[in-house]
Amino acid sequence: QVQLVESGGGLVQPGGSLRLSCAASGSIFSIYAMGWYRQVPGKQRELVARTVNGDVTNYADSVKGRFTISRDNAKNTVYLQMNSLKPEDTAAYYCKCSTVVAGEVVDYWGQGSQVTVSS
C-alpha cells in the first residue's frame, strides 16, 4: 500500500506560478512511475505530466514549456512546478503513483488539490 498526500493548490492570477507537492509513504520501493493528472467537472481526468523510473518524463502538449515535473527520491516526493498559468489550467489536480506488486500494476491516487487561475 502507498499513501499519497498532496499540497500546494490554491488561487493564482493568470501568468502566475504554483508548485504542487505529493509525498508518498508506505511501500514506496514498489513505485516505478509518478505523475500528475487533472480533471474539470464533466470531463475525463487527463494526464498533465509523469515521470517513469526517474528518467523518462511525459507532458501534455498543453503544458509543455510551462510545467515541470520533478522527483526527490530522498523525500519520496514528486513536484509539479506550474508557471505562466492560464485560466484553462483551472482544475482539480491529482497525484498518481504506479507500483508493481506480484507482477501486476497497482495505481494509487492522492486526495486532489484545487488549482484556480483567475483574475
Topology:
Blueprint: E1 2-7, E2 10-12, E3 18-26, E4 31-39, E5 46-52, E6 56-59, E7 67-72, E8 77-82, E9 91-101, E10 104-109, E11 113-117
Parallel strand pairs: 2-11
Antiparallel strand pairs: 1-3, 3-8, 4-5, 4-9, 5-6, 7-8, 9-10, 9-11
User: Radius of gyration from the CA trace?
Assistant: 14 Å
Question: How would you classify the helix and strand content by structural class?
Answer: mainly beta
| Number of extended strands | 11
What is the average per-residue confidence, as pLDDT, rounded to a whole number? 94
Helical segment count:
0
Largest sheet, strands/sense/barrel:
7 strands, mixed
Low-confidence stretches: none
Q: Strand portion, in percent?
A: over 45%
- The span between the termini is 40 Å
What share of residues is helical? under 10%
Query: What global shape is seen?
Result: elongated
Give the SSE string: EEEEEEEEEEE
